[in-house]
Amino acid sequence: TPSLLLRRLCVRHRRRPKPQALAAAISNGSTSAMAEELTDDLLVEILSRVPYKSLCRLKCVSMRWRRVISHPDHRRQLPRHHLQPLAGFLYADYRVLNRFQIVPALDPPPLIDPSFSFLPKCDDLQLVDSCNGLLLCRCWNQLNEHRTFNYVVCSPTAKKFVVFPDSTCSKKVRPFLGFDPAVSSHFHVFEVVEDWDYYDCDDDDLECDGVEDVVGLRIYSSETGVWSDEIDNGWSNRIRIRRDQKGGSKSVFFNGMLHLVAIQPVVAVVDVEGKNWRTIPLAHKDGSPLCGAHPPCASGPEGFIALSRGLLHFASTDSYGDWEISVWVLDDYYGGQWTLQHTVSTMRPFERMMRRRMNPDDCTLVWIEGRKMFFMFYDYVHCILTSYEMDSGEVRCLSRPRSYCEPPYLPYIPLFLESLADGP
Description:
This protein has helices spanning about 1-10, 20-25, 30-35, 40-45, 50-60, 65-70, 70-75, 350-355, and strands spanning about 80-85, 90-95, 100-105, 125-130, 135-145, 145-155, 160-165, 175-180, 185-195, 215-220, 225, 230, 250-255, 255-260, 265-270, 275-280, 285, 290, 305-310, 310-320, 325-330, 335-345, 365-370, 370-380, 380-390, 395, 400-405, 405-410, 415. It is about 15% helix and about 40% strand. The chain has 2 domains: about 1-80, no CATH class; about 80-415, Neuraminidase. The chain is mainly β.
């Protein structure tokens, strides 16, 4: 009976069926006949438990399976993406125009097209941001005496992309990418508008050095294909977003909200419609609030934000003394309750790096995954990716020294997906 087949293939031992076993079961005579007795709804229930990559292969089982899997009424129930673990960090190889490399975090290293040849041709391709397997780039072209650009959002793994114009905002902006494939295949690009009216910035320079007050926001939605009108800043008149100088993360997208590290001791949060704005105060240490950065007169990347195991993490760097890093977890998202998870003085675990004539100022925290932190050491010539286990204190060099690897370093998570423009 259909229910018997469903139990055999889906819920035996309460495990997800392996696609190979599923295909083999269908291919034998008796099971194949039983499968043909299944209604489309039951077949969709079975296939909904199969990973996206395997689901694509299972389209070849029969014409009926292809029809069921491809039917618009079933696509919302079936997996439409497959997000793999962190594979490494992308960076621009400035020796060759429009060429990119990856510092691998896995062995063997992932294979990517270093020239991104699947993208439209442009004079200069600039990496801007990444989020859950998608990359945000600027595609620059020379038009008469002026440089113009389009935004490109792409998946290097699936070799899919969307091209759209900038918002034509006349002020300086900071772009961030928001994407959660578990919720929707649509993405959003946030242009944080800053007040640089009193500063002499070259018109071709979209981002001046330093930080200024946020005055507004523009949001692009891949669902509508248009930019919103400029939305007035809903945080406060004095919110300033920390600028990423060495490639550490300053933004996280989850719960449909963009989270940004501010110069002030807060995480600034806004939703994809620009209607809900809030700030999450950072934790206090030794009676004083942590900051997203040192005062503007100080140097060094001093705030890192990450999402790990569904919880927001914030790492605070104290570059004085022993160069200490404190990792905090936001246990109560709406109550704003932070818990100290780990503290480490990087002078001790990274002694091997010091022998390579690298110092803590060359070190950037680039990823947090569970109880593991990833650091990039960069001395303006070479870069080395290392990992640090919080529990054991073990430090591992994950890559050989690589040359000409300037920041930013964007996390590369292989993403297999059906489309960048499907409904939620």
